[in-house]
C-alpha cells in the first residue's frame, strides 16, 4: 500500500511540475517579429514602431508607410476624425479604435462602395496608426503573411 501511495504522490508532483514548466514557457515566449515587403521591396523602418506586429492572431501594419509605398494618398479627415486612404478608383475611411472601414468607389460602371469589418480595431501606437494587413485587400492587393514576413503587392492586369 505504501508503494502505491508513494507512486501516486510522485506522479502528482511530476504532473504539477510539468504543467508549471509549460505555462512558464508560454508566458516568457517573445512575441513573433515580422518584416514588411511592399511590391517586392523590403520596408526598412528606422524605427521599430514602424514594423508589423501581431495582436490576437492578426498581423497589423503601419497604415501610412504601407499605403504610400503602394502609391496611395493618405490624409487626415478632421470632420470624420478618420484617416483617408485613396487610390484612383476608391477611397477608404478608417478610425482609430474601430473595426469598421467605409470604402467609397469612384467608378460609375462598377460599384466598389462597401463597408468592411476588420478582425481587430485600427490602433495608434506612438503616433502611428496600424491596421490589419487585410485592410489592403479591397484595394486589389495580394496580402500574404508567411514565415515572419508580411507581403503586400498590387495586383496588376492589362488588356491586350
Roughly how much helix do the residues carry, as a percent range?
10-25%
Strand ordering within the main sheet = 5-6-7-8-9
Number of helices: 2
**Spans of 5+ residues with little confidence (pLDDT < 50)?**
9-14, 23-28
Q: Within the CATH hierarchy, at the fold level, what is the topology of the largest domain?
A: Copper Amine Oxidase, Chain A, domain 1
Q: Structural class of the secondary elements? A: alpha+beta
Order of helices and strands: HEEEEHEEEEEEEEE
Question: What is the name of the CATH superfamily of the largest domain?
Answer: Copper amine oxidase-like, N-terminal domain
Give the overall silhouette: globular
Q: Could you tell me the number of beta strands?
A: 13
Tag the structure with descriptive keywords.
alpha+beta; Mao_N_sf; 2 domains; 13 strands; Copper Amine Oxidase, Chain A, domain 1; five-stranded antiparallel beta sheet; 160 residues; single chain; Copper amine oxidase-like N-terminal domain-containing protein; 37% strand
Could you provide a short overview of the structure?
The protein is 21% helix and 37% strand.
Structure overview:
Keywords: Signal. It comes from Paenibacillus amylolyticus. This protein has 160 residues and is α+β, with helices and mostly antiparallel strands. It folds into two domains: 1-30; 35-154, Copper Amine Oxidase, Chain A, domain 1. It has helices at 2-28, 63-69; strands spanning 35-38, 41-42, 53-55, 58-62, 73-77, 82-86, 90-94, 100-105, 114-117, 123-125, 128-132, 141-146, 149-154. A hairpin with an 8-residue loop joins β8 (100-105) and β9 (114-117). The longest helix has 27 residues, at 2-28. It is globular, with a radius of gyration of 23 Å. The N and C termini lie far apart (86 Å).
Amino acid at each position: 500500500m505504501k508503494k502505491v501511495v508513494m507512486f501516486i504522490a510522485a506522479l502528482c508532483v511530476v504532473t504539477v511540475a510539468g504543467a508549471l514548466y509549460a505555462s512558464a514557457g508560454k508566458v516568457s515566449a517573445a512575441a513573433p517579429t515580422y518584416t514588411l515587403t511592399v511590391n517586392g521591396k523590403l520596408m526598412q523602418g528606422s524605427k521599430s514602431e514602424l514594423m508589423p506586429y501581431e495582436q490576437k492572431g492578426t498581423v497589423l501594419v503601419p497604415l501610412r508607410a504601407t499605403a504610400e509605398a503602394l502609391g496611395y494618398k493618405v490624409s487626415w479627415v478632421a470632420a470624420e476624425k478618420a484617416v483617408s486612404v485613396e487610390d484612383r478608383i476608391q477611397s477608404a475611411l478608417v478610425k482609430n479604435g474601430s473595426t469598421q472601414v467605409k470604402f467609397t468607389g469612384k467608378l460609375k460602371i462598377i460599384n466598389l462602395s462597401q463597408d468592411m469589418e476588420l478582425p481587430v480595431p485600427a490602433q495608434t501606437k506612438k503616433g502611428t496608426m496600424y491596421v490589419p494587413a487585410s485592410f489592403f485587400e479591397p484595394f486589389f492587393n495580394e496580402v500574404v503573411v508567411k514565415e515572419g514576413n508580411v507581403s503586400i503587392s498590387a495586383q496588376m492586369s492589362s488588356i491586350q
